[in-house]
Each structure stands twice: as structure tokens, then as C-alpha cells.
Fold this sequence. Notes:
Helix 1 packs antiparallel against helix 3 (about 50-80). The chain has helices spanning about 5-35, 35-40, 50-80; strands at about 45, 45-50. It is built from 3 helices and 2 strands, in the order ααββα. The protein has a two-stranded antiparallel ribbon with strand order 1-2.
Amino acid sequence: xxxxxxxxxxxxxxxxxxxxxxxxxxxxxxxxxxxxxxxxxxxxxxxxxxxxxxxxxxxxxxxxxxxxxxxxxxxxxxxxxxxxx
Length: 85
């Protein structure tokens, strides 16, 4: 892989990481802590939504984001020809 391709690959990887970590931050910190009281007006399965985000939402979101990251990186690897067969 050429140096330009390496730089482009790493740049795209960092973009993916920043976006996915921002989503996780929004779910775990913003929804789970900062606006939890406002979210408690709504309920999921009998539990206040703020409680759900604080206890389960960030974990579930993190696992989903792992699968999304794997899928994105597999696509990026194929694009740059560095995928595993």
C-alpha cells in the first residue's frame, strides 16, 4: 500500500472512531446523566427512560457500535485491498 493510501485509510478509520465514540458519549453521558431527569417522563417496559439509558442503554449501544465498527472496517479493508480472505 502506498503512503497516500495509508494516510487515507488511517484518516477514514479515525473518522469512524470519532463518530462512533461521539454516539456512545451522547447515549451514555448526555442521555444517561445530563438529561436523565427529562427522559424519566417516558417509560420503556415499566422503567423510566433515563434509568434505562443510565443502566442498559450505554451497554447495549456500545455492543451495537462494536458490530457497526467491524462492518465499517471490513468495508474499508476491502476498499483499500488489505482485507483478510
